[in-house]
Amino acid sequence: MKIINARVFIDGQFVNTEVRFDETGITAIGNDLPDTDVIDAEGNYLYAGIIDCHNHGGWLRSFAYGEEDEFGTYEDRVKFLVEKLPEVGVTTVYPTLGGTQYERIARTVREIRKIRGKYEGTRIGDLQFEGVYPSLKRYMTANAVSPSKEHSDWLVDNDYSDVALFHVSPDLPGSMEWCDYMVSQGVDPTVGNTEASAYDVFEAADHGLCQADHMFNGFKAMHHREAGAAAAVMYDDRIKAQLTCDGYHVDPVWVKILIKIKGIDKVYGVSDMSDASGLPEGTHIVNGKKITAKDGFIYSEDGYITSGNMAINQIMKAARDRCGLTMEEVGTLYAENVARCINVTDRGKIEVGRKSDLILMTEDYEVLQTIIGGKTVYKK
To answer: Can you tell me whether residue 72 is helix, strand or coil?
Structure first.
């Protein structure tokens, strides 16, 4: 199978070339490739399948474990997400488990491990833990604890083989030893939801902390007399930064400042979708509360914006149209940098030998076709 007449995104630019693939992976890139089985892209845009490594759910379903509800069992809800996400271009999703409901997190880890690979659709990738060890006051609960080897081992049943990113606040007691332990387990320590100073973060980076959870969100506001965690992330080249570019999570000026200071190769795009994302315009009931979806955002009953409502392909469009990024910058952030920044080498870029996970999009990021493992799993 080969794709012709596409603008193919490779190494930060669009090129006119053909891409041949089968179920084993991408087998050739070039012109006039021999193959009689052809997909004609008709001038549309071909990207590597998107790895959304910060996703809590969507369309009223969550990756966090819960008992049976109007949408069925927990497995029913995850199956729905796996089958729905190809429509927005996500070919691998990292379920992001957040907060300090530790029993629920531990149960979710066990349930996801049972479901992974069971259904056709978006691949369930590794896990990201967010807000598990917070120090920022608005994320603190009576359950919150400081990081420790023993506590983290319990959360994951002593198995870190499918854990990619694990949050910590480096101002908490024991965080440096905890970072050392995460690194020894092949896990990237991630800073976020924190009151930490820049100096706490620099010290944690000495112990292997190398990622920033959705940059600027969950960080103290910056002040010229106080060097906080956000300043450390911008300054320290050892730390890669997640970023949501919908124009709400982060003001477009800050999006551009971060990219300019760190360099675009150390910044990668995430959706931060929640169960209250991906909803049609109008009023909904989520977790017993009335919300309104309007203009790409979710509003509480008293009129406050509580989250974004966009799926990742819509965020890519907003990154261009609201934040003023070029299509090359958008493609770099969302279709190549995720793999680069979280050290994934078998997918996340159009390159011979990588998995044949591909998405065909219009100029305005409408998904036309999603290919996972060489098979079309969604076609508009």
So the answer is: strand
Token pair recorded at residue 239: 């730390």
Structure tokens given for 282: 């109008």
Per-residue pLDDT for 302 more than 90? no
Which residues lie below 8 Å from residue 289, measured CB to CB, with a gap of 6+?
300, 301
Report yes or no: 335 and 11 within 8 Å, Cβ to Cβ.
no
Query: What are the CA-CA distances from residue 213 to residues 50, 98, 99, 132, 374 (Å)?
Result: 18, 11, 13, 12, 32
The whole-angstrom separation of Cα 140 and Cα 166 is 17
Q: Where does 49-275+312-348 sit in CATH, by number?
A: 3.20.20.140
Question: β-pairing, 289-294 with 282-286?
Answer: antiparallel
In whole angstroms, give the CA distance from residue 30 to residue 274. 39
SS3 113: helix
Do 122 and 88 touch, CB atoms closer than 8 A?
no
The 8-class DSSP code of residue 202 comes to H
Write the pLDDT tens digit of every residue in 135-167: 988 777 888 999 999 999 999 999 999 999 999
What ranges do the domains of the chain cover?
49-275+312-348, 276-309
Phi, psi of 340 (to 5 degrees): -60, -45
**Number of neighbouring beta carbons within 10 Å of residue 254:** 17
Distance of CA 144 to the CA centre of its chain: 24
CA angle (376 as vertex; 370, 377 as ends), nearest 5: 75
Write down the pTM of the prediction. 0.94
Compute φ and ψ for 166, nearest 5 degrees.
-140, 120
- Using the CB atoms, write b or e for 3-13: b if 16+ within 10 Å: bbebbbbbeee
Say whether pLDDT at 300 is over 90.
no
Measured CA to CA, the distance from residue 379 to residue 256 in angstroms comes to 34
